[in-house]
Amino acid sequence: MAKQEDIFKKVISHAKEYGYIFSSSEIYDGLSAVYDYGHNGVELKKNLRDYWWQSMVQMHQNIVGLDAAILMHPTTWKASGHVDAFNDPLIDNKTSKKRYRADVLIEDYAEKLQQKANKEITKAKKRFGDSFDEAQFIATNPRVVKYLEEKKAILKRMGQSLEKEDLADVKALIEELGIADPETGSKEWTDVRQFNLMFGTKLGASAENATDLYLRPETAQGIFVNFLNVQKTGRMKIPFGIAQTGKAFRNEIVARQFIFRMREFEQMEMQYFVQPGEEMKWYEYWKQTRLNWHLSLGLGKENYRYHDHDKLAHYANAAADIEFNFPFGFKELEGIHSRTDFDLKAHEEHSGKKLQFFDPEKKENYVPYVVETSVGLDRLFLAVFSKSLMDEQLEDGSIRTVLKLPAVVAPVKAAILPLVKKDGLPEVANTIFDDLKWDFNITYDEKDAIGRRYRRQDANGTPLCFTIDHDTLTDNQVTVRDRDTMQQERIPINEIKLKVQEKVAVKHWLKR
Ligand code: GAP
């Protein structure tokens, strides 16, 4: 089996080769942790965004959209707590001069313990076969119990130390665990310090009169400050949600994992406003609903898991991540947070304006509680792209590289391929293309032998290829080839649209 690092390298190079992702300003040697999306990337990203939007806004009568500005009044960030508390604990290695997030070093150590436990479980599974009781094994096998307890204790201590701002203990923990610089193996660490992640900028024509602003580090605050605007104009009743997608910016300390941790990225967030006291019910509901949404993409249940937080952000009374099995292991893909009434109350205090809901039945005003779902679009892109990319050995022993993207989000839905560039086949192919282009993003390709063209579309992630050959001229049928199974069948030209529709319709995917 290929090593994780090799798989990740292949993902990055394939993303570039097929026009999905480029380094930003590459001709100037790039800009660290900033990326551009190419012709295929922009389509995949748009389709993932649409798939999210349709499931959240279109499918819920009580969820509406918003597009708030990136620049917001600076008091927003004082009220939200970001000015004082949006920090990462950083630590430098004295020998290598490399900078790390102290919490990530500890989490990676804890993840290794989890992997050791997983290894024992896999071994036992093989040994005991069908009679294997996994839950019992996890609860009783001394080695697994030891690894998992150690992991839990480490994460708990870290969570408590960060909560108390006891950075000396975070350093002590790193030293006690013998954590070394992952690149050089050195254990010479500086003290742990806090580092604010917000990017500052200025508004105004002259330096003296300029106002200090921040680029938003999350889209959520645009929703909170517009809570009453949307509630009143949309005549929304609790519970209701406001959804938004858009750019966010963070001056990440450690940004070395391609589009997993970027300095400029896109979030898809939804704030669900509920009655105080009902937040835990909705928190559980959204945890499950969001996991189901990810599962609908068909990347495999085994690639997702929950991680309930020990350390809570300053605004939350419960929080969990949906983690995904990225090429570098399980990491956060989406966060579900019960944010209490923290944000709305803080904005009331700082603005002097009421942000309350009048309940017509109870005839009383209250500040709603909020359950948030927040997923990074770029991270979702990486999850989908990396899991879809595979090398398959065919019956004849050759290897084909195929990008088995979920068809609903694939950039190009179908390729129209005349078998040869003559005999009237391109004319028929173009007629088919001109008919389909109104409904789907499709491509036309007449260069190279048909086998090579199929492989090109496989690597590009195109779910269906339609080939127009000489028989088409007399029987009005084309050959349709399926990317995943490589099966081919003949269908009438007038069934092509339906064939594509069945493959890519959001309805089929969301209902899975
Ligand atoms: N409003 C809540 C919030 O922003 P978060 O856990 O900091 O919570 C939510 O971020 C999601 O945004 C994460 O689960 C992740 O998918 C994405 N995200 C956060 N930082 C990111 C970064 N530097 N690069 C790419 N995606 C990021």
User: Which bin fits the share of residues in helices?
Assistant: 25-40%
The CATH homologous superfamily name of the largest domain equals Bira Bifunctional Protein, Domain 2
CATH topology of the largest domain: BirA Bifunctional Protein, domain 2
Q: What is the CATH architecture term of the largest domain?
A: 2-Layer Sandwich
Quick tags:
binds glycyl-adenosine-5'-phosphate, Herpes Virus-1, 512 residues, Rossmann fold, BirA Bifunctional Protein, domain 2, 3 domains, alpha+beta
Could you characterize the architecture of this molecule?
The protein has 512 residues and is α+β, with helices and mostly antiparallel strands. The protein folds into three domains: 38-74 and 82-86 and 197-394, BirA Bifunctional Protein, domain 2 (2-Layer Sandwich); 88-195, Herpes Virus-1 (2-Layer Sandwich); 412-510, Anticodon-binding domain (Rossmann fold, 3-Layer(aba) Sandwich). Helices cover 40% and strands 24% of the residues. The protein is built from 18 helices and 23 strands. The strands form seven sheets. It has a seven-stranded mixed β-sheet. It has a five-stranded mixed β-sheet with strand order 20-19-21-22-23, sandwiched between helices. Strands 5-4-6 form a three-stranded antiparallel β-sheet. The longest helix has 27 residues, at 102-128. The radius of gyration is 26 Å and the shape is globular. Glycyl-adenosine-5'-phosphate binds at residues 218, 220, 250, 252, 261-262, 265, 267, 269, 332-335, 372, 374-376, 378-379. Residues 218, 220, 250, 252, 261-262, 265, 267, 269, 332-335, 372, 374-376, 378-379 line the site of glycyl-adenosine-5'-phosphate.
